[in-house]
Amino acid sequence: MNVPAARSTPPTATVEALVRDWYEALGRGVPAEQLLPHLANGLRIDLPTTTLRGRQEFERWYRTGACRPLTGARPEPGGIQVHMQSPVHALASVAVAGAGDVPPARHEWWVVLQDGVPRIRTIAVQPRTAPHPTRDVQGTER
């Protein structure tokens, strides 16, 4: 993952690159050691079935292969929105398309500058319901 070092405020493009690179790295199944430097102190990942706190819990969880809610996720085209919340905090909201056993979701990321580098502080996975198909008067699905 090649996320450029930031100045005092991470530009939205840098935060978006971190998010995209993270999903790509997870999808490739890179070793946990390559992901850990991108995690901030105070890490928390809220998943539908568990909450991970800190790098050690993340590493243990990732190595077990139970990480499908994140590794099977791909942002929808144009689905990453970054909002600067302070000079050192960014909120990235990611619309994730459902695929296979991974339901559609919204992932809320808090990215923080630590030592001048954007790092992941929080990821919250919030399932979305798939849109219901519409039916015409005869009951035909559209």
Summarize the structure in short.
The chain is of the alpha+beta class and 142 residues long. It is 25% helix and 37% strand. The protein has a single domain, classed as Nuclear Transport Factor 2, Chain: A, CATH 3.10.450.50.
Side-by-side strand order of the widest sheet: 2-1-6-5-4-3
Question: What's the gyration radius in Å?
Answer: 17 Å
Percent helix range: 25-40%
Report the mean per-residue pLDDT as an integer.
82
Protein name: SnoaL-like domain-containing protein
Organism: Streptomyces johnsoniae
What does this protein structure show overall?
This protein is α+β, with helices and mostly antiparallel strands and 142 residues long. The protein has a single domain (12-127), classed as Nuclear Transport Factor 2, Chain: A (Roll). Helices cover 25% and strands 37% of the residues. It has a 6-stranded mixed β-sheet with strand order 2-1-6-5-4-3. A hairpin with a 7-residue loop joins β4 (89-97) and β5 (105-114). The longest helix is centred in the first third of the chain and has 17 residues, at 12-28. It is globular and about 40 Å long. The protein starts with 11 loop residues before the first helix and ends in a 15-residue tail after the last strand. InterPro entries: NTF2-like_dom_sf. This is SnoaL-like domain-containing protein.
